[in-house]
């Protein structure tokens, strides 16, 4: 079975598992840690869970892609898929893990999420404090790469679904110009106000990919995001794929081509 189909079913399965078991699991874990005095790395932050999955560049470390997973997921699957295409280009891949939190869309049950998601329509109320905290965390990961000698214009930020939305927002609002922004099946957060927050990344190259049959984040969301970004950024590429709320080998190859173009 192709790996992008495996990823799709893993995403759906993980959402179902967290939907039915998230609250119970969190309660058991909290009781266990309280009883034995253990500190879980997942509880170290309300945003970040366990340490990010990282795969090293092959040969010279030329660039870094920081990629945020979607709702109910973790970074390991994306790390495995992206590293196949990007490590050989000299790109280090960093895939963070979100901490579990109550999600309104999930009837308040806990699941890995970068911020609260209150609905799946363009007019749904947004979690402004949560988005701000997640953006701050994303910026801290960029700063970590800067401290390790990778210049900002060699750092990409990307993500899938709510992670793609976070990547767009954090990428646009970072204080130094980045190499590029990648959003797969994503959408634009705070679309009425975000332009006023942008300084260095108003024309940073952006790649947007979207499944033509996506039932969760419809294609129209991607088209709206493209249209809004192009009002101030001519360097936006938007491509669609024959899939639902998932990815394809073609899409990942296009991401790799986009990254390679920017770093060469």
UniProtKB/TrEMBL annotation:
Gene3D superfamilies tied to this protein: alpha/beta hydrolase
Domain of life: Eukaryota
Gene Ontology molecular functions: carboxylic ester hydrolase activity; palmitoyl-(protein) hydrolase activity
Residue ranges of the TM segments: none
Annotated ranges, domain Phospholipase/carboxylesterase/thioesterase: 60-262
InterPro entries, per the entry: AB_hydrolase_fold (IPR029058), LYPA1-2/EST-like (IPR050565), PLipase/COase/thioEstase (IPR003140)
One term under GO cellular component: cytoplasm
N-terminal signal peptide: none
A Pfam family matched in the record: Abhydrolase_2
Entry's EC annotation: 3.1.2.22
Family (UniProt): Belongs to the AB hydrolase superfamily. AB hydrolase 2 family.
Protein name per the record: palmitoyl-protein hydrolase
Organism, as annotated: Bursaphelenchus xylophilus (Pinewood nematode worm)
């Amino acid at each position: 079975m192709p790996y992008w189909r495996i990823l799709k079913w893993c995403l759906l399965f993980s959402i179902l598992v967290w939907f039915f078991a998230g609250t119970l699991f969190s309660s058991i874990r909290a009781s266990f840690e309280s009883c034995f005095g253990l500190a879980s790395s997942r509880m170290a932050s309300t945003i970040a869970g366990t340490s990010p999955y990282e795969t090293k560049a092959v040969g010279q470390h030329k660039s870094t892609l920081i990629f945020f997973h979607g709702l109910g997921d973790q970074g390991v699957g994306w790390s495995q898929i992206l590293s196949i295409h990007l490590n050989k280009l000299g790109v280090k891949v960093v895939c963070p893990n979100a901490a579990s939190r109550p999600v309104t869309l999930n009837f308040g049950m806990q699941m890995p999420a970068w911020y609260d998601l209150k609905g799946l329509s363009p007019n749904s109320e947004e979690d402004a404090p949560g988005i701000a905290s997640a953006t701050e965390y994303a910026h801290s990961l960029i700063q970590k790469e800067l401290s390790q000698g990778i210049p900002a214009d060699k750092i990409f930020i990307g993500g899938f679904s709510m992670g793609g939305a976070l990547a767009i927002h954090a990428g646009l609002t970072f204080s130094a110009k980045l190499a590029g922004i990648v959003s797969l099946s994503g959408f634009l957060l705070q679309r009425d106000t975000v332009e006023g927050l942008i300084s260095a990344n108003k024309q940073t190259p952006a790649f947007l990919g979207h499944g033509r049959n996506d039932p969760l984040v419809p294609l129209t969301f991607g088209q709206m995001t493209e249209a809004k970004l192009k009002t101030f950024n001519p360097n936006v590429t938007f491509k669609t794929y024959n899939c639902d709320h998932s990815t394809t080998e073609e899409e990942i190859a296009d991401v790799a081509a986009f990254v390679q173009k920017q770093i060469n």
